Amino acid sequence: MRILGLMSGTSADGLSMAVVEAGRGRPRVLDHGEEPFSPADRRFLLALPSATAPDLCAASVRVAELFAKGARRLARGCALVGSHGQTVWHIPGRASLQIGDGCTIAARLGLPVVSDFRAADIAAGGQGAPLVPFADRLLFARPRRSVAVL
């Protein structure tokens, strides 16, 4: 199964994307790319922690539109999208707010979207930042060999 992963970090410099073949065996990265955010979009994203609730609601759709637009090329041939969203605020182990409405991304790309990874991890008793260590292990772990990932 081909899965498109979407990620925008707290630096808000752009949308990072990877197409991964997942199923039996080790996942394989088939394609990747980045869609830089414009200076205006970056300023908008970095100002979100002080936004009002109505502004955050509208921002969630705006971020989803940015993600869908940036991901359109890589989405072809994929069966599913995993979107981390844009972190607005994170309290490890207690709460986390990512925006970038998964339903809007799904409607624009015509694919099912899985999202809210941090909230799901916190609900299960984690710290809310489960993605990188898990992916690093899947992609880079080698039996009887030490591997460092930066």
Largest sheet, described in full? 6 strands, mixed
Helical proportion, percent range: 25-40%
Class from secondary-structure proportions: alpha/beta
Give the overall average pLDDT.
91
The helix-strand sequence is EEEHHEEHEHH
Describe the structure.
With 150 residues, the chain is α/β, with parallel strands linked by helices. The model has no long low-confidence stretch (mean pLDDT 91). It is built from five helices and six strands. Strand 4 (80-91) and strand 5 form a beta hairpin.
Give descriptors for this structure:
150 residues, single chain, 29% strand, alpha/beta, six-stranded mixed beta sheet
Brief write-up:
With 150 residues, the chain is an alpha/beta fold. It has helices at 39-46, 53-75, 102-109, 117-123, 131-140; strands at 2-8, 14-21, 28-36, 80-91, 95-99, 113-114.
Structural topology:
Elements: E1 2-8, E2 14-21, E3 28-36, H1 39-46, H2 53-75, E4 80-91, E5 95-99, H3 102-109, E6 113-114, H4 117-123, H5 131-140
Parallel strand pairs: 1-4, 4-6
Antiparallel strand pairs: 1-2, 2-3, 4-5
